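Let's practice the habit of predicting before peeking. Look at the sequence and jot down your guess about where helices and strands might fall. Then scroll down.
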Amino acid sequence: MPAKEKKRPLVSTIEASQITNFLDVQFSVLLPRERSESVEILLERFPKDLAFPIHQHKECEQTYIFLEGIGEVNLEGKVHRLEKGGIVYIPRLTDHAVRNIGDSELVYIVVETYPDGYLANEPTWDSHIDALRTHYGIKE
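Done guessing? Here is the structure:
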C-alpha cells in the first residue's frame, strides 16, 4: 500500500478560491479535498428562487453556516427557516434539500467531512464535479 501524501497547511482567501458554477449555484472551493485528508469547505451562492431537490450523501456529513439571505432546509421532511448565523448539521444518509426563499442571494458555507475518506473515483474537486455531471446527465 502506498504511503499517504503529507498534507500541507493552507492559508488563502475567498477571492483566491476556485469557482465552479454548477446547476445555477456558484461554488467557491475554500478548502479543496485534495488539500485535506477528510474535509472539504465550500462557499455556496444560491440565486433567488433556486431550490435543490431532496437528496442524501452516503460518503459525507455536512454542516451549513448561513451568512446572507433567507433559506429553507428540509431535513427528513421537516422544513427549517434559516438566515445569517443559522447552522445546520446533516449526518450521512439523511434526506435534505436547500431552497432560497429570500429576495436576494442565499450565501452559506458548507463543511463536508468524509469519515471514511473520499470516494476513490472522486479524489479532487474537479473529479467530483465530473461525477455529478454524469449523474445528472449534463454534457459540457
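How did you do? The longest helix spans residues 125-136.
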